[in-house]
Amino acid sequence: MKEKTIRKSRWMTTIAFIIIIGVTYFSAVITDFNFIEGALTFPAAISWIASNLWITAETWERLPAILTKLNETIFMSIAATTLAAVISLFLGLMGSQTTKVNNIFSVIARFIASFSRNIPVVAWSLILLISFGQNSLTGFLALFVGTLGFLTRAFIETIDEAGHSAVEALQATGATYSHIVSKAVLPQSLPQMLSWILFMIETNIRSATLVGILTGTGIGYTFDMYYKSLNYNAVALVTFTIVITVIIIELISNRIRKVIL
Question: Packing angle between helix 63-95 and helix 103-117, nearest 10 degrees?
């Protein structure tokens, strides 16, 4: 019986592998992509990067202006995430099976989460760009809407996974809805919720660079400006500051997660 199960598992793995190869091959044929030509371009690309993306002494003089735009991007990402977290908490409580008020609110909360989460941030940037133009508000709203959907879904699952014993105990004593949420649900769910918020801050700082290119704001706009003017030394410095910032924020975030979880 055990050998039969192992044999079946191997067959399933083989079939899945063949399907992946088949899908990859037909995708390459449809898109007219040549794997060999693609692989041959790597040496030239690496050579170009090594030749052009150097930070010169003259480029360092642009660092204060770059850091100003980088700070704008960081604070915009944090503001969008925290505002989305507050609204997502309300939607999460309405959408969770544990704390929902009624089925109508639950369906609405889950629909908002699915709708905003399944449209990429880049798509939201383009949609909002038509309405609001190229400004900081457009970048903020794009990050906010994408974050709202993700955090709402994450908060719903976090609340649903929390222990029901404390909730049932308070319900048995006739506690009000607000007391159940504040005394039973939030104490159990808050650490994981904070972890999700930190994760989204990291993600939004990365996404804000691309959003900034589209909306003309923050460090993304600075990157796009230097790139279009063929100032590759400045592009290298912008890229370097973004990478260092993301690494620092990720280290801080991981440290906080270890404390709260």
Answer: 150
Give the SS3 label for residue 62: helix
pLDDT tens profile 87-111? 999 998 888 887 887 888 888 888 9
Rounded to two decimals, what is the model's pTM? 0.79
Report residue 70 CA to chain centroid gap: 18
HSE at residue 17, side-chain half, CA atoms within 13 A, is: 6
Buried b (16+ CB within 10 A) or exposed e, 225-259: bbeeeeebbbbbbbbebbeebeeebbeebeeeeee
- CA distances to 29, 170, 207, 228 from 179, rounded to whole Å, are 60, 8, 38, 57
Rg of the chain, C-alpha, whole Å: 24
Q: Can you tell me the distance from the alpha carbon of 184 to that of 167, in angstroms, rounded to the nearest whole number?
A: 6
pLDDT by residue (tens digit) across 165-216?
A: 777 777 777 777 777 777 778 888 888 888 899 889 888 888 888 888 888 7
